[in-house]
Amino acid sequence: EGSWAPTKYAELFGGAELVRYDTVIESLTSSAVGFGHMFFGGSYRMVMGERTTIGFNGKFVFPTASALYREARPFGFDFGLTGHFAAHPKIHLRGQLGLMGSAMSGHAGVGFRMGASVTGGAEFLPIRRFAIATDLVSVLGYTDVLDYFAGAVAFRFSNLKRFGFELAGTFPFAGRERAQAVVMLRASVRLGSITAPPPRVRRPRAAAR
After folding, report:
1. Spans of the chain, pLDDT less than 70
2. 3-state secondary structure of 40
3. Could you say which DSSP state residue 68 is in?
4. Which of 24, 22, 81 has the alpha carbon at shortest distance from 208?
5. Which candidate, 187, 171, 137, 132, places its Cα nearest to that of 154?
6. pLDDT score for 101
7. What angle do CA 110, 178, 184 make, to 5 degrees?
8. What are phi and psi of 68, to 5 degrees?
């Protein structure tokens, strides 16, 4: 993933999942491995206080994960209102209210889905170059009344300038998709001049499926 901040209020980002592995943990298992989704998006901070930040973010997801698709190739998007509060120098709280959706076409015709997402969590910074993030993530109305309610954890490493690495996992325990766990290793780089990065809130799994 790469990002560029043209101003201290805005950020553009994009990236690709070089290898994606999906598996369903049930009595009859199924899995797929291959190139994942490509995405592009941006964020904008409307309110920037000493301890509080409020802004918007959005992302488009392109149908490049061909190993996951059967009869249709979906385009996905999500859009959200985010908040970030530095409760303590080593404890930051954050949340997001969002909309997510996908549009697809295939042998069965044109289809469209839309749902809502709610995310809340905290980030712990025991040392300057390392953080532990925990979240509760829920998606509603996308394929069912409750698609999933999940816990998520991420371990983040940074050189405090341009480069970062993250090992993250999302583990659903309720909802229609409660059998689908995700583990992800991500590398990121910031381009251009260095400014204070906008707060990033864990997004639900990509809407494109």
Report:
1. 21-32, 67-71, 106-109, 193-209
2. strand
3. G
4. 22
5. 132
6. 92
7. 85
8. -90, -15
Location of structure tokens 């409307």: 46
First to last CA, the chain: 20
72-88/52-62 β-pairing:
antiparallel
Residue 104 has a pLDDT of: 80
Residue 146 tokens, joined:
């409750």
Place of tokens 């910031």: 190
Tokens linked to 78: 């999500």
* Distance, CA of 143 to CA of 158 (rounded, Å): 36
pLDDT of residue 208: 47
Q: What is the identity of the amino acid at 78?
A: D
Q: What is the pLDDT of residue 132?
A: 97
Start-end of H helices in 125-207: none
**What tokens appear for 56 in the block?**
């918007």
Q: Dig out the tokens for 40 from the structure.
A: 């592009």
| Residue 66 DSSP code | G
The pLDDT assigned to 185 comes to 84
CB-count exposure of residue 2 (10 Å: 0-12, 13-18, 19+) = middle
pLDDT value at residue 160: 75
The predicted structure's pLDDT at residue 152: 95
